[in-house]
## 1
Amino acid sequence: MSAPPITSSPGASAGPVAAGVSTGLAAPIARIERSLAPDIARGAMLLFIALANVPLYLWNRPLDAYGHIADGTVVDRALHVAEQLLVADRARPMFAILYGFGIAVMADNLARRGVAPAGARRVLARRSLALICLGVLHALLLFFGDILSAYGATGLVALAVVHRSDRVLRRWLWVTGTYVLLVQAPVLALLTSGVIPFPAPPPGEPLYGNTYLEHLVMGVTSAAVQIGMAALLLTFVPLVVAGMLVHRLGWLSRPAEHLPRLRRTLAIAMTVNVLSATPVALIALGAWHPDALGRAGAVYLTIAGGMVGGLGYVCGFALLAHRWAARGRRGFPGALAALGERSLSGYLAQSFLMAPLLAAWGLGLGEGLGYAGAYAVATAAWGVTLLGAVALDRAGRRGPFDALLRRVTYGRGRQ
């Protein structure tokens, strides 16, 4: 294969890989090649995902004009404000950045094995299509708020730039980022705030319906909307491209070489993160009562700021990984990394734990539950997945859905 030399470090990139004849076999990255920072980040941010998703299971409580529980305790309100300030619309952007990082790492790994760019794109396309299928099934059977299908659709779009130069990637970042800020984010803000009418269940009823059949309908509809928004509104494309650039810069694979820049980016991004989320946090607190357009503006700010905040969290976990580097994959950092290695299984396991427990079609414990109780359930579910990942790690086994994705991506015998 004819290609520019690529360093042996899995986190280093030699830029675009020249076309050539594939002489190698497509195979996943060996564990010894994995960087600690992205695994720690994925493991920790799965808690954020659980906290952000669990309110969708709640019903049969009085709601205010903005859809928040109106009769919650002081603890309920305080925790909900914190979630709006630090978690809402933050976990998905961060995972999108890590998803782009992973795409770039896979592309470089395939190039080192002698796989031509066209062959690498076929491997990545299979992975993206598998994520779409898993996401649709997840939304249909368990949780209508699935995000895997949207990431998979974004991965197909990202194939256009996976082997392009840094200059092209930066151009895509600015162009698609501008498009998202001017088109996608306003549409989502207007829908969320009710300025643009959107079908919704009666107040107090579950978002996904009372029966499993209603949930099935909601799930397939939601999956179609997620895929459509990802493909047409490019929801996560600029974040995925940012993740590719993060890989090429070495911020996650070699954080020790970039400490000043990581700290500076973290400080700026987290300032933007908090300031942009303050309006929605004030609404959740009950300290501000805007009209529909005012709320749309607040939602727009938190969506836009969440894109920056996602990068801030990536930098923060890179700095934590640097501080914990001496421990390696032991102790609490090792537990987070074990879950991060099995992030797909951990993500789906949250739904296996929470959906039957909380949903109206299951045990229905989400009825009348407040924010404090819901966040406790989410944290407990995350804790169970953390312990499960540690057990699998000690047994030398992958997560079941991660193993399935590898088999579909690379084929039997190269997992």
Note: The two ends are 23 Å apart (CA to CA).
## 2
Amino acid sequence: MPKRAPSLLSTSLLSAVLALSAPALARAAEEREAWTPTATALRADAAGIALPQTVAGLSLSKSGEVSHGGSGIDNYAQYLSDDGAIQATLYIYMPSYADASLAAYMTDKAIMARFGSRTHRTAYASVAAAGHANGALRAVYDDAADGALTTAAAFVHAGRWMVKLRVTGPTERRTEVLAGLDGMLSGLRFDDASSIHATRPATFASCPAADGIDARMTGPAAATPVDIAMPREGSAPLCIRGRVDTANGNYEMLRQAGVKDGATIVPVDDAGTVLAFDPAKTGAGYQLSIHSVGQTDIFGIYDKVPSARQIAEILDGKDPQTARAGAVVAFAANGEVTLRNGDGKSR
């Protein structure tokens, strides 16, 4: 399995540059700067998304790329209050499996895990974005870091792109933190606002436990990109069919509630890394694909969804059946798609 990108929360939430380590297998045909500043705004050209340089008491401090340098598919911009006590980050990135509801869910889990038992969520709902009702998810967390911090986030899925806003500051300045988040959200501008997906929080229903029996790999990787047949943006209830324990953490096996033979996904972090087992397009079984920023790795077909133990081995890089992807699909910021064999040769 390829090395996975760590969570966007894997370093301090008050840090501007959060390292991701997914390999840059794809670059845009013509490399360009990720951001273009104007007199009043900062614009991610490839995504067609912009934000004012000063908004709601926060001013642009610096911007750049989190990973995939020069490709413009994984970008950040940091904003600060005048005294630096309130810090905000705008992320505009292109995961190959984009879902604002899932991004919010994984960020929620990461925040709760990172900031301790006193942290509690006080808001989690769909709100308007760029004139679109339910175009964003907004979340607020109080009493983080033993009561010292308030942190808030918002998520928008527009076309192929994800937008994530994070604002964090001292608890006593909660009003400013929320004003910063809401100001940044309302200040976002989209070249194509019609591309914004309506989204809502993920909901969960009961789900029968997986049988726990190991699967066998029975076929080669698909020859074309995999489009996972899962409802996104909170459009249908999900359920947890099992839990995966690995050396780096615990993850959930999710599927659509009430659908016995549908796809199963395993979200790995809040940066868009997702394992997916989708019913094979030809014949029986389930196709494994691993999605990350700008890339999908396609592996072989299993006769059934693998057990939690097998998925843990895949995530830990110990599964001999998935030592190397059969195909790698690279997505460039300009819309170009490159398909390579596992040996690196283009198809």
Note: The first strand starts at residue 35 and ends at 37.
## 3
Amino acid sequence: MCRMGDVLAGNHAVWEFDRTTNSLIIRFARGMRTPRLWHALGERRIPVEALAGVGLTAGRRDTLVLHARVRVGADPLMDAAAGQLREACDPYRLVLPGGGAGAGRAGAFTEALRERLGPEGPADRFLVSVPGPPATLKAYDARLAFDGGAVTFHWSRTGATSTKWKAGDQRYALADLAGLVWHSPERSGGHLRLLPREGAGDPRPDHDLASAVFGVGYGAVHESLPFAASVLAALRARSPVAAVPRPRAGERIQHLAELHSAGLLTDAEYRALRDRFTAGA
């Protein structure tokens, strides 16, 4: 049973602190002003051990902002996003009306969570669940399918370059992948790139056979990010970072460096993946 102060209703979301399971339940409202990513997420249960910190600060127009900071490696959605989400789309941010009794409830809620926080360092496994397969994603130049064991690229006759169309559809088993990079469609050159363990593809996403290009109306954040998170979660379950022997982790980092040197990874993408493997080494 929840006690007074264990539930906070904010703009477009309700946060509930479930003391029996020591977890934070976030229920996202549906509405015209609610980010579509939150529509796609619906409801999430976040174990408190997945959080590195929580804070309450003053927001705009007499509001309060409750923000939870997730541990690296604890949530596949945030790991895949790699800091690219706009503030308004951050699922760990709750905007509350300020002043009066509401401020007191928000403060008590924050302290209740803070008292139960565990270690702040990287998690050795994903602690937050994502929707399971099967999953599909429609990009500009391909339709992607993930069945839990492999990702398949079905090229679009009108959107794919001749390089991809001539090569034919591609299938990548999880066992053959070292990771992935999601580049937000809200930024220039948005795409999803799989990182095969062997060999580097073309540095241009529209020519790389392990990449799908986004565009206007294709690969939107609320569609492509959950898809990427599902694949990433399955990859981690198959080969947890914490279970990788040190020499193997070193090989992965070296492989990332080679991809970076070849222009297949941007500086930001390389740093995000390098830090993830280093944390688990």
Note: Confidence is low (pLDDT under 50) at residues 241-247.
